Amino acid sequence: MNEEIKIFFEIAEKIFSKKIDHTIRINNSYKNKKFLELLNELKKSELTKLLMKEEFGGANFCFADIVPLIKLSAKYGLPLPFSETIIANYILSESNVKPTNDFSTLCYETSNITIVDDKVSGVLRSVPYLNITNFILAKINFNNKDYLIYFENKSGKPNQLKNFLAEPRFDLKIENEDLIYFLDFPSMIDFENLISNIKSIQSVGAMEKILELCINYCSDRKQFGRSLSKFQMIQNHISEIALETAASGASISIFQTHSKNKKSNENFFDLKNTAIAKIRTGLASGKIIASSHQAHGAMGFTKEYELSYFTKNLNSWRNDFGNETYWQNILGEMFIKQNKGMWEFLN
Predict the structure, then answer these.
(1) C-alpha span between 22 and 141 (Å, rounded)
(2) Count of H helices and E strands in the chain?
(3) How many other C-beta atoms can be found within 10 angstroms of the C-beta atom of residue 250?
(4) Residue 45: its pLDDT value, please?
(5) What is the pLDDT of residue 262?
(6) What is residue 260's predicted lDDT score, i.e. its pLDDT?
(7) What are the start-end ranges of the E strands in the chain?
């Protein structure tokens, strides 16, 4: 980590450690004074602008620089669209338009989108954090061409999805919302690939937190006069969590490696790297979720305790943009199409 990004990392860790607790995670509402303090502190820090071009007030970092920051936000269970805003600001900046100073969210799936006189109508599905922000960036296909739209939802009513996710997601039907930006989608950015990598990085952050929770809980909790950590079965569970977390961390290490051109995002947008990270974190997620809840017993399922928040997120991110089986098929097809040996291909 270079000195410049280290400063921002330390700023983020100071804010997260001071302002985030589990009561904020389960009540991320503007009515919650502590949540508002967190929101305002992050806005003032301008951490979401690190990937933006300098001409728009950003730091012009590349993704390799901010991987530790994305992972840290997931480890602390930051309950607002932090990564989404970083990505939205980056894409808008790369499209040579200035992002807003507010938080934004991303839409991954749309249907029945129509655009008439710079007004957009249609359905946006599974949009995260519409309870926090009304600014939405989406990639759409309109008239057989990919576009970038950015707008503020003013009249659509979000319908929160009933699911087992920790982060709130919503379906939204909009009619004639004014577009702030309607642009050709930047050809150098693979939107789905980009979001998939972010999910893998966030997953490793959640795994690190789960491991920490398991070690602390099993060291403090006693049964039959001994702490749980002294029992061999519990030790096996924690060892497996540690192993899978380390392996998953290794799978995203390529995202932290600069290409020959330090400002390039070449490693981040390589489909093979995406597939490997998605496969490894997906395989680990299932094992970690099971082992961590077994180590905690019934305590782990309660909403008031932290564990279920992180395991729900982990299960969600594991399945976003295809689970490990989906990416195993993609990686297998890539291997078949080239003439290298297995290890040479994966290297």
Answers:
(1) 39
(2) 11, 9
(3) 13
(4) 94
(5) 63
(6) 63
(7) 105-107, 109-116, 119-128, 135-142, 145-152, 159-160, 169-184, 222-223, 226-227
Instruction: Pinpoint the residues of the chain covered by CATH 1.20.140.10.
Output: 191-346
The model's pLDDT over 310-323, given as tens digits with 9 standing for 90+, comes to 999 999 999 999 99
**Given this model, what pLDDT does residue 295 score?**
92
Of 167, 163, 213, give the one whose Cα is nearest residue 28: 167
Any idea what DSSP says for residue 101?
S
Query: Cβ(148)–Cβ(186) under 8 Å?
Result: yes
CATH superfamily of domain region 191-346: Butyryl-CoA Dehydrogenase, subunit A, domain 3 (1.20.140.10)
Tokens of 162: 């009933």
Among 222, 209, 223, 169, smallest CA distance to 308 is for 209
Contact 50, 106 (CB under 8 A): no
Instruction: Give the number of other CB atoms < 10 A from CB of residue 159.
Output: 11
Amino acid 304: pLDDT: 87
Judge contact between 147 and 182, C-beta under 8 A.
yes
Minimal CA–CA distance to 125: which of 89, 156, 146? 156
DSSP output for 191-206: HHHHHHHHHHHHHHHH
Low-confidence stretches of the chain (pLDDT beneath 70): 1, 163-164, 225, 259-263
